[in-house]
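Page 42, continued from yesterday. The earlier attempt failed because a stray header line got pasted into the input along with the sequence. Redoing it now with the clean sequence only.
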Amino acid sequence: MKNTLVRTDFNFPGQTHVYHGKVRDVYSIGEDVLVMIATDRISAFDVILPQGIPYKGQVLNQIAAKFLDATADIVPNWKLAVPDPMVTVGVKCDPFKVEMVIRGYLTGSAWRAYKAGERTLCGISLPEGMKENEKFPTPIVTPTTKADEGHDENISKEEIIAQGLVSKEDYEQLEKYTQALFQRGTEMAASKGLILVDTKYEFGKKDGKIYLIDEIHTPDSSRYFYAEGYQERFDKGEEQKQLSKEFVRKWLMENGFQGKEGQQVPEMTPEYCESVSERYIELYEKITGEKFVKADISDVPVRIEKNITNYLKQ
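This time it went through. Structure tokens are written below.
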């Protein structure tokens, strides 16, 4: 797919380091500033898929920026500016070595574990007799380790503190922030006819202060159900209508791919990539309640380089 940004190789003024993640490329400028580029790469089952998705990076970056602004009264965050539709510039923090996952409903990997007979998740006891997509009495925080390579692993609060990954005091603050952010996200989703099902937050520290970092409430980091018809579908044991990247995972599984050794990623035709792009744009409009304005993609790398360089010169 031409007009998608799947790799970057910039050299900005003052650049000291670059990190290429699954979806984002992060450029360090000096000691204190990060330039995070949301590419059009898409990953599933911890595998970067071979084709980019038009406008995906713009969708993710602009949703994250909107929610960072909408939650800045709860916890300080890393965002300084959005000089390009696919770019956020922010404060460089030391990331905590855990991701704070919070779940309002029993679904996804938690449901798969529950169905297989597990009744504790990250040290939290789950009640008997729950069904798929059932709402928890109160949202549960189920952290994972942050793996540089491979899969993140579930871990309990007690293990995190015992292993010294996060101090007890900091961890308790992270939990409070996680619950407050999820509550705000839930309210914002409800106003758009959506249910925020589960999500993850990442935090870092700078000068002794905790910051919210990375993306927030995007369809890559969160799962949303449509509120309308939720109860009816639940009562009938039907699948929920959802807004998340789950539709890509489902397509891969239907075509025999789950990221396991020896499996081939099915062919991603231009038509398929276009259909995924349309879903991401639909997600954006539903989640934000705003019309998506497509950026000029005639030469994405040139546009990005120009916008970032102009910002850094200021």
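Notes: The first strand starts at residue 15 and ends at 20.
Reminder to self: strip header lines before submitting.
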